[in-house]
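Quick illustration, no need to memorize.
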Amino acid sequence: MTPTPSNPPSDRDLSNYVGRHLRFGWCSLLCFLSLGIVLETLHGFKIMWYLNVDNQTRQLMWRLAHAHGTLLSLVNVAIAATWSVAPWLAARWRPVASACLIAATILLPGGFFLGGLDIHAGDPGLGILLVPVGALALFCAVLLIAWQTFSPRDPAHGGKEHRPDDGQARAKKRINRR
């Protein structure tokens, strides 16, 4: 059964989402850090195709692709860690938030990169049109996750307020039963 907003994902689904965002986050971080190394190399070896004044738009677009991609990769790792310690966050909307965050991680830096490939009289190419779509996807993902942080209730525990058990509460219960 596919999880929907009315059918929250199970613990098994949660571990799939956590694993997906960990893998995607670390792999995309490797990709975007590699892009940064390539850009530094082009700059370090004074490659005029990249450094030429006519290509300042390309430099800006590719630096934005590197910066946004790196940051969003780390956000993917952060959401995996967040869902690991607070599984009730965005539980109902996790499939949508997950898809939006992955789409944003591809579309935002991808739009900047593609916009820098083909520049026209100082303006980025048509790839830049992916940036607002990626920004909207990022906004939706963050909105869904942030909205759930205001809910102190953990649906997995029958709607009761979630309080992590540090072991002391269990020890007190055992003592009180005796």
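Residues 11-157 form one domain.
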